[in-house]
Fold this protein.
Amino acid sequence: MRNLLIHYNKSYTVWILLLLNSFYLNAQRIIPLQDNITIKKYLEANKNQKKSTEITGADTDTLSIPFFDDFSRITVYPDPELWEDNHVFINASFPVEPITYGAATLDALDSGGNVYQVGNKPATGDRLTSLPVDLSEYYGPSDTIYLSFFYQAGGNGEPPESKDSLILEVYSPRDTVWIHLWSTPGIPAGPFQQQIIEIPDSLYQKGFRFRFSNYISMSANETKSGEGEMGNLDIWNLDYIRLNNQSFESHEKVNDISIIYPLKSSFSDYQSIPWDHVDTASFNRKRTHIPITIRMNDKLPGTKDTITIGRGYFMRNVKTDNFIIPPFKEGEEKLVFDSVYLREDAFLPIIKYDGTGIGIIETGAFLIETNDAIKYNDTVTRTEYFQNHYAYDDGTPERGFGNPGPAGGTGSIILVHFEIYRTDYLRAIDIYFNETRDHFTGNESFRVCVFSYNRYDSLPVNNIYISESYYYPDTTRGPGEFNRFILDSAIFISDDICVGIIQNTDEFLNIGYDINNKNKKHIYINNFGYWESLANSSDEDGSLMIRPVMSRTPIALGLKEPGSDPGYGMTLSPNPATEYIQVEFENTGQKAVRVSVCDASGNLKYYDPAGLPVIYLHDLTPGIYLLKIETEGGTSHIAKFIKTR
């Protein structure tokens, strides 16, 4: 076991600057996003979800104090049992060293995940509004009520400018008015800071509410490439919000111990590898340790300075619901309060290829015997999907990457290097292009290419393939969907390769860039006939969302599964799915008369003679299934889908 202790004094102001010191550097290459694909994927899978609500009266009281939310249940939108609107983003990606796992992020994107239409003058962005709370039974000095919260500027996002702000308002039902209670102007990126506010006793009313708002400003005049570079700016993170009648001193203390960051992938560098490469990769690049970060918040008065904490782990195959490693306890030690600990415990499960098309593996880490206030933030899980591609990225961009003129532009090459674990055929290249305002990059052309790689010099060398066709970014695809470019002919790969694009434009093509996984050492750019590695550049570290797709057999273009009809006339959404599958036909005149679902072994698991277009999955265990639909015209359609949990 390898241990690293980062010891903090009480203040929450000690900061690891290396995480945040380069957000504005090299803006020509790395820029903020114009959308949030996590929100868009959530809305696609939950089409009936309301984006926001608003309560105009004070008659509906749903809550009483104590009120508490630490946002550790990562639900994309705020908990509807506590909050009335859906503007902010609940996530574990933007906060840095949160108080517990997860935070609420106020930014420049609306509840649908799109950038607000604002100018260079500050305007309201997101809001986080509590449901009404009944404070009418409290009577002033003998029942003082405090609202406390932690806030952070920037985090893993662009920090707000000084002219922007974070504001707290409270609502008086008696006067039907919102009252400004607290605010802070935009500040540089930094750690979480706590604010404790006494609620005036004149507001101890039935229907009391409070809300946070961020004021944002952005203008095309402030970007180097005009409107195309406008993106998600002015980030604030909120954490650990409490409203109760406990003492001021109790608000200063956070009686909670939590794992604060998501788990890492099972393999070094890669977030995903081809499922049929996993046996070889397990002996080469499987992580031997599992890192977790534990935050020991404040000790309570009269308690000891240390507490004994155990750590536990597990891994299971989601498709079979069998444990690869059953839950076990790894270590137990005394940890000091007011500290953050990084622990890397030995963890080497054998992940084996099972002959199917996809592997779904869940890993979990949990704390034991914490005796703290909140238990659910003591456990963190990660689900990994192994399909047919190598990926450094986790599928979610936090930035956009490009190489525009004059340094880049027409003829410039952008490549990503990949170590391939076994011989196979390169069939396609997947690239994620960020959505851009008015889809301005949709007319900018490029070609895809493949280069060999010299390990001795750590540089690309000979070009193996350049597409004859010119391609264009499709930014209108569904949220989270990559553009797939099928190669004209398969390439046999027995060594490292580099895949990427050759630009035919001077514009910023805005490729997805994942800053949560640090792999810029694998990115290479050729502008003037020589290769530049980003390894030693000042560019923010991250992973470019370009992936090689490997397969021993030909693959189909796009995400549709081939059926018995040559037109592949059926699509399923969402896929993977958790609760239901929606069936849609390209030919709207088709009507299903029978629907059946079989598992991977051919066993019938679902049958509907009425042919309803929605299939509910509550009775299915996680795994891969085949859906067969027969239509009135006698045509059969077969498609594959994944049930995740």
